Amino acid sequence: MTTTAPPPPPPAQPPHSGPPPDDNGHGHGHGHGHSHSHGPAAPVSQHLRKVIAAVLIPFAAAVVVGLVVLWPGGAPSHERTGVGFDRQTQSAKVTKVQELPCKDLSPSQPQPNGDTSTPEGQSAQSRATGTCKKALIEVTSGEDDGRTFTEIIQPDSPRQLRKGQEVVVAYEPKAPEGLQYSVTDVNRKMPMALLAGIFALAVVVVGRLRGVMALVALAISFLVLTFFILPAILQGSNPLVVAVIGASAIMLAALYLCHGLTARTSVAVLGTLISLLLIGLLGSLFIGWAALTGNTDDNTGLIHGLYPSIDMSGLLLAGVIIGSLGVLDDVTVTQTSAVWELHQANPAMGWRGLYRAGIRIGRDHIASVVNTLVLAYAGAALPLLLLFSIAQSSVGTVANSELVAEEIVRTLIGSIGLVASVPVTTALAALVVSADRSSGPGAPAPATGTPARRSSRGGKGRRRKA
After folding, report:
1. Which end is more exposed in the chain, N or C (fewer Cβ atoms within 10 Å of the end residue's Cβ)?
2. Which regions are flagged for Basic residues bias (predicted)?
3. What residue ranges do the domains of the chain occupy?
4. pLDDT tens by residue, 324-337
5. In the chain, how long is the greatest CA-to-CA distance?
6. What percent of the chain lies above the pLDDT cut of 70?
7. Whole-number Å distance between alpha carbons of 322 and 318
């Protein structure tokens, strides 16, 4: 009778390997613990949740009280001036366009002297010898629905109308009957609505439930801006206080809706709040020191003329705070998530190690975000910069003008707040996760290995990355 030897035992797993493969033969763990990067955040202890709630619940309650106390109940009414955006408008449609010589449409216009060396001379010559358009416009809304009037379009006009085009017309009831209506703009509602629909579809398709929550948060932001911030400022409330309360409400709604009611999101909220306070302090100091009035163009001049009680420099500071909020949310959430994932990958890492690893990630984020913010402001002010370039003004002269100085101060204050948000949020997140009792020495070992093994892997991973 022969006996068969038992099969040899399977080879021992190396201490640094991940969990065994599943039934299909696919392994789960490798490298730096990527199996944790897409899962839900690990829950924190009950004690830590109470500490975070003790800080954020009074803050949220103060925001709600501020909303109730300063709620404006609508923008104050005023008599329309007929200037700029402060005009009564209606919808209209171009029903007919006829091309005629400009000299036949304006026979009383003085003849040009032939000098085309100046823009005025070129315009006069074009209007005297060029072909103009005579457009018949039909009002399609309001009490004068169906009424028609004519509009003369000069050859050098930047807006050339065509038959069937929908336009916006301004109505001035005090003007003579033939001059009560005039074309002010093109109706762009359809292409803008289509573009918004494509944007929303892309967000939902790619982001799925997170995308839907992001759209809800975006709607809440517009509601707070439209029904609280703007009317409250027009009612005479302090723009800085209104901006802080409104931005805080937007921050709480956006972050918790998009990222869940978790300790990780709460740390991002705290980091954003501290950064906003820093931006508010710096803005209040340097806007006053640089004597920036916030009244630099026709629109701000019109606002000041209609509502002299509005603090225009405070309005400028409110714009800085609200404009910085969106980028701050992105930075603080990213830094908090990075620290949380590092902690899950290596629970034995102390808060100093977490901070050093998180700040290395944050440095790359700082470089890209600051450049993004500067280019965004530069792009918005590009026509203004072109004017200074045409005038061949020196860099010092351009920077010293209030129009440009306002954008420079706005950019630098926002950038300082963004830069500061990285170490602040990273330090907060590192302190929170390292102080969490559920991850202390007495906590159960993670499923993917003991803390000692994870520490070994984490150390090797850091050396390879460095």
Report:
1. N
2. 27-37, 454-466
3. 95-111+118-188, 207-436
4. 887 888 889 989 99
5. 128
6. 72
7. 6
